[in-house]
Amino acid sequence: MGAACCWPRPRPGPPACCASGTSRPGSACLCSRAQPMPSVPSASLTVGRCSAASAGTATGGRPTLRVSAVPALSTGRIWHVRLPEVRCVGVSRVSAQVVLAWGTAQVGRGGEAVLLAKAHTGVDIQAFEVASFDESRMASCGQGSVRLWRLRGGELRSCPVDLGEHRVLELTGLAFGQAQDGHMLYVCSRSGHILEIDPRRMAVRHARRLLPARPPDGPASQKQAFSSGPGISISSLSVSQARCAVGSEDGYLRLWPLDFSSVLLEAEHEGPVTSVCISPDGQRVLSATSSGLLGFLDVPSQEYSVLVRSHTAPVLALATEGSRGQLATVSQDHTVRVWDLVTLQQLYDLRSPEEAPCTVTFHPTRPALFCGFSSGAVRSFSLEAAEVLVEHRCHRGPVTGLATSPDGSLLFSSCSSGTLAQYQCVSAPCRVLRVAANVVCRDAHPTPNALAVSGDGRLLAFVGPSKYVVTVMNAACLEELLRIDVSALDPASSCLDSAVAICFDPGPLGHLLLSTSSHTVTVLDTASGRVVRELPGVHAVACPSLALSRDARFLLMAANRAIKVWDYVTKSCPSCQVYIGHSEPVHAVGFSPDQQQLLSVGDAIFLWDILGPPERSAPGSARDSPAAAPTYKTSLDARQLEDTVCGANGLPRQQVPEPSPASPLQPGVCVGSFKGDNDAFSLSDEEGVSEESHSPARLCQASCLPMLVKEASRAGDGVWGSPGGPWGLSMGPHPHSWSSAHSVSKAQVHPSARPDCYRHFLARYKTPLLAKSASVSNTGVERLLLKVVVGYNGNGRANVVWKPDTGFFAYTCGCLVVVEDLHSGAQRHWLGHPEEISTLALSHGAQVLASASGSCGTASRCHICIWDVPEGSCRHFLSFHRTTVQALAFSPDDELLVTLGDYGDRTLALWSTATYELLSSTRLPEPVHGVAFNPWDASELVCVGQGAVSLWLLQRRGTDVSLQGHQVPIPEEVRAGELTSLCYGPVPLLYCGSNAGQVCVWDTSAGHCFLAWEADDGEIGVLLCSGARLVSGSNTRRLRLWAVGAVAELRCEGSRARSSSVFMERELTLDGAVVSAVFHDSMDMGVVGTTAGTLWYVSWAEGTSTRLISGHGSKVNEVVFSPSASHWATCSDDGSVRVWSLASMELLIQFQVLNQVPGALRAEPDPPPSPAWSLCPPSVSIPALGLGPCSPRPGECPCLPPVGPQSCLCLAWSPPSCRHPEQQQVAAGYSDGTLRVFSITRIAMELKMHPHRAALTALAYSADGQTILSGDKDGLVAVSRPCTGMTFHVLSDHQGALISTIQSTSKEYGDFGSEGADLWLAASSDQRISIWAADWPRGCCELVDWLSSPSPTLMEAPSHPPPCLVAFCPWDRALLVCAGLSMHPELVFYNLHQKQVVERIPLPFFAVSLSLSPGAHLVAVGFAERVLRLVDCQSGAARDLAGHDDVVQLCRFAPSAQLLFSVAHGDILVWEVMGHRASERTLSSGPPPD
Fold first, then answer.
1. How far is Cα 1257 from Cα 1279, in angstroms, rounded to an integer?
2. Could you give the CA distance from residue 56 to residue 44 in angstroms, rounded to a whole number?
3. Contacts of 403 (CB under 8 A, 6+ apart)
């Protein structure tokens, strides 16, 4: 068993380090190789100068020192130091300090740390520092003392520094620094003093005091040093050559010059900063807080990156989730945290300040989490919406146990008062079925093994009604089946035995494992209660936590600080292994969902790698039967394949034929050159292994090289060669008979897991399918022309093309290809894909464009469209890949097109551009991230992937084309990880970027990597090279320009080449991870796309980036228009409110609500490292506290899905009748219940209110603009006055259902028998509509009408009823137009005067959005089936329009009635409404014909 590391890579450490601790007698010596995620804040952290290790100490009952190896990302050693009892004359044993000096030079080589010296002292020691100029000299500080230490001759000696008047200070940290005349020691104090001590003279040279007060007339970002007043409580400091980093109790990390004249930079954290460490060059600062946060500040970019989050108190319980690979933990710090077991990053942080969480478990099939609390509450959390779904209070005491049935239909909970509750969880939210009192053991402590459900879900076991009894019940009806008296299991015992923990055997027999207070584990038969077997003496104390692996091979037990893993399969004399690493008692243990790791929690979260043989079936199961031998699919000859595909009876094929793939690529070491060695690319007939051949006998006969057959579940992956041996691959030409199509389909393997790199395209999740054809009458309907597409798909990869010579410029937005004229801004739209487009490729002659999109479902394939650029039409339609096309590339002569499938498809296909027939294809053994043709040789193409470069050569024999390939691994010394991007340079150079931020340079003629350098801190996803310049883009939002002219000369040096001749010319920081880029051949200018949905024009000559295309990267929730129809505004889930020009469709203003997160940087007087963006719209950032999952911190990878910021859910523009029409305002409602009013003219927030406790979902101004009506998801409607900021009325008529619509209009005085000039309505999700007349100046509001209807029944998706949509009719004020009120999909026209329905217009589907034209009698309806329908209410004719790849959740007519906006997720389409005369013309997206 080895260690799985969850810490980031620290800096390497010095050959020696020192630690101090209070002596405690009797501590045991333990050793472990596990790497924990800490749950208790570390006491200190040090990073060494030689970049090999880091050392840290932990507080708690046992002094702990950990030394971590940085490159390997693992812990070198952990010591729990045994300190002898101190007996010194005149020194109290309690107050004695012991200083230990350890030699760590051999730790990195696998050796142990050596105790060099030990000293006892009576002075207080709070911090210890080793001198950077002499590692034998050290310094310490504490209460009123600073001591200088020296290690010589195996002894530690010290002498005090005369502090004078400063001896009363409580000193907390110290650091060595450089001075003009030698070295300087800086010491900080809790009162804000910083002392500069001369180590040679052992005296204080300067004393300063840092104060938080700002001068009245000075800038807010500067802080001065004074000699009086309340100082900053400093906890730690670190010094570089020119700067000093200071961490303080107020949560700030501040960066000062060494003269402490003013603050250079500061970062605010959510808790007190306990430790800081600055790099020698002063470019990065590492910080740790008492709230369990570890991160670093990048000074040049002013970005803060979070490295580790942790609990701040012992962890009590854990739970794992299989489908998403998540871990949930609860702790005494009153938090529930959800972690990703793959990335080991925290996903969610659920806090409960008033009550402590006790137990936790996942729902097996839904993204939901159940948690029990000390108050007796059981809550269900939605991990998608980050909210509480339901709360149950069936218990009176703390919840002691939670368990779900394997199918997720039932949930069980128990509490310390003896109550057992059963819940039904088939549909959300769950509801209580049964509650049984006095069933479970009373006064029990919360434990993950309090309740247990059998593997088949039939049985429920628990300890109760007393601790001496275990009860087994029927899980469905809670009928008692068996009671086991634990005290009678061992008659020879002298004391009563009690039950401690239970769990079920996952095997078919379903035995029950019971841990007892007599330190034994007993296996019981659940039918009879008899003892099947017993494991005596498993621990010295009782075992409170048990876990069995899924195949019942390993039994995991924890007690006290140890973990034992037993060979559970062995019946007699089972063996066990003991693993030690925890310094406090272990509270819970478990297995990871893939059964490859062990999990243990207590003082920390430990992940242990299982290094044993792979998982097998549980004993006694069908898979474990000796007769169930593994089977392998044997290949068929050509005749058999032909019969199989076509059928022996001559019937036609049932599926589209596929080409015959060649053998998958086999890894190994390429001996010789890429070119010029014909033998390296040839395989004899005996060596060729077909993908359909998986029999071990066939494999042994095929080649004399040793082979390893993969498991049957991955049989389609083919055969791997032995490491280190020569290998080759031959991919023959495509057979004209298509005879292997059926065999290929049968050999399809399970899709791979998504690689941990952002380079791979991941389509946005969509539930609806395309609408089926419906009968639509087009006669007499206005014609809609797609005029503008607003936005760029930042979710795509390499989805921007630009040909500077011809001016052709295209990008993607959803399922559309947008071709835009960069001079005029005019757009053309090519529609041909049913799904989101993943990537684009433009031929070198700029005559052909290839676009690819994902599959529509499990039965369909990816769509590849071949577009004729001059004509703008789709000439060919290709379909081969099963999941998603990762990359497209044309050969230099434009005669070939290569398509690469993603990680789930793993196929490489070659097409002829003359006929667009498939020439050849192959199945790849591992996911490949990129592909490119050699621009100098059309017969060569290269793929990059996991740790290797794959080169393919094309061989032509007449009309047949075959591929032969080699794979060359990355040299170990490069340590580049996975190669994620590539581009060719001058002959014969190939540049490759990696997920570790390195750029590797390969000599394709010699077949080796000769140069590598650190180009970025994150993954490099984009590389472009032209001449002597290279552009790199990464997920750190950085775009860099490199001068690589000297690389060609370095090629001659081979492995001796150094990267010092490669330097960075320019750097720009954009608004998201770089996913697409295209540059002019001179590399002076280009276009770059980011994940934020922005296209930037980059000019390296000017050092600027100009925003070309702006869009929303998240879901758009509302579109509103200014009364003058000159502007429009949008709001989205990312919390932004954006104001656009209606004439140019350009972004003008953006208001952004941000969280107050650790590391949020304040403004700094120094200029940013990259030039300011030109022509960027003004942006206003408003700090706010977000809810739900952990917010992304500044500096974290922007490619990850954003979680945490408040969502802006509704929007309203002030009406023209406002008192000051020139002062336009926009009101926005947010998910935390706040309402903000923004001034458009002043570009500022004017008002913030909190009228609701729940999320705002609807918003409207009154007719005079002096009143705002807002509705929330709980059904409350609040009436507020923005002039005073007060809410003066709350309506609860719709309480219990989400308010979906609020609309206000004006009416005549006395109309509808009511006073006032306002008529407004509110609609809720329970299909209820209320219409009100109001006189807001007098505070009067009267109900005019009330409409309700039973919810429609959706046969396809009953859990998602359609929304209730309603609007006042603009051409008849007495009419309401409603959708979703009846049992059938239709538009209903209701007359408010007649109180009845006057007209119904049927619809093909239930509507999800609705808008009425203020001009003609037109209604726009959006459907979940991705269709937008325009209905003429006079004639009843309708027209359906396509163009969206998701639910059309919004459609809005502009006030001019000439434009219609439709929104699907973040894609906004603007349609132009033409006259009746154009109604009979064919719908198209181009300009109208002359």
1. 14
2. 6
3. 361, 411, 412, 451, 452, 453, 460
Q: Measuring CA to CA, which residue among 376, 468, 451 is closest to residue 415?
A: 376
| DSSP-derived secondary structure for 553-586 | -EEEEEETTEEEEEESS--SS--EEEEE--SS--
**Please, where are the H alpha helices in 496-563?**
none
- Determine the number of helices (DSSP H) and then strands (DSSP E) in the chain: 4, 114
Give the SS3 label for residue 702.
helix
Distance CA(942)–CA(884), nearest Å, equals 20
Bridge partners for 718 per DSSP:
none
**Could you read off the pLDDT of 243-258 as tens digits, one per residue?**
999 999 988 999 999 8
Identify residue 1268 by its one-letter amino acid code.
I
- Provide φ and ψ at 1311, rounded to 5°: -65, 145
pTM for this entry: 0.53
Q: Give the DSSP letter of residue 394.
A: -
Provide the token pair at 125: 């020691």
Tokens for 95, please give them: 């107050």
CA distance 1131 to 1052: 57
User: Residue 249: how many CB atoms within 10 A of its CB?
Assistant: 17
DSSP for 145-180, written as a single string: EEEEEEEETTEEEEEE-B-GGGGGSBEEEEEEEEET
The pLDDT of residue 1184 is: 34
Distance CA 106, CA 84 (A): 25
The closest of 562, 557, 596, 597 to 581, measured between CA atoms, is 562
Confidence band for 1059, pLDDT divided at 50, 70 and 90: low
Residues 6+ positions from 981 with CB-CB distance below 8 Å: 759, 929, 930, 944, 992, 993, 1020, 1021, 1022, 1023
The secondary structure of 100-140 as a DSSP string is EEEE-TTGGGT---EEEEEEEESS--SEEEE-SS-TTEEEE
* Lowest mean pLDDT, pick from 366-380, 480-494, 597-611: 480-494
User: What is the distance between the terminal CA atoms of the chain, rounded to a whole angstrom?
Assistant: 76
Side-chain-facing half-sphere of 393: CA atoms under 13 Å: 3
1481 or 1366, which is more confident: 1366
State which amino acid sits at residue 557: M
Return the SS3 of 1337. Answer: helix
Pull the structure tokens for residue 267: 């970062």
- Closest Cα partner for 1192 from 1076, 1273, 1073? 1073
- The per-residue pLDDT for 671 is 31
The mean per-residue pLDDT over the stretch 83-105 comes to: 55
Point out the least confidently predicted range of 63-77, 89-103, 934-948. Answer: 63-77
Radius of gyration of the chain (CA): 35
1038 has a pLDDT exceeding 90: yes
DSSP per-residue letters across 1104-1133? EEEEEE---SS-EEEEEE-TTSSEEEEEET
Res 180: pLDDT = 73
According to DSSP, residue 995 is labeled T
User: Would you tell me how many other CB atoms lie within 10 Å of the CB of residue 583?
Assistant: 23
Residues 471 and 483 sit within 8 Å (Cβ to Cβ): yes
Question: d(Cα 730, Cα 747) in Å, to the nearest integer?
Answer: 19
1462 or 654, higher pLDDT: 1462
3-state secondary structure of 643: helix
**Which amino acid belongs to residue 63?**
P
Strand stretches in 854-959, DSSP E: 863-868, 873-878, 885-890, 896-901, 907-912, 918-923, 928-934, 937-945, 948-957
Residue range 191-244, pLDDT digits in tens: 899 999 988 888 898 898 888 755 444 444 444 443 445 778 999 999 998 899
- Residue scoring higher pLDDT (57 or 1233): 1233
858-878: b (≥16 Cβ within 10 Å) or e:
eeebbbbbbbebeeeebebeb
Q: Tokens at residue 963, please?
A: 């591929």
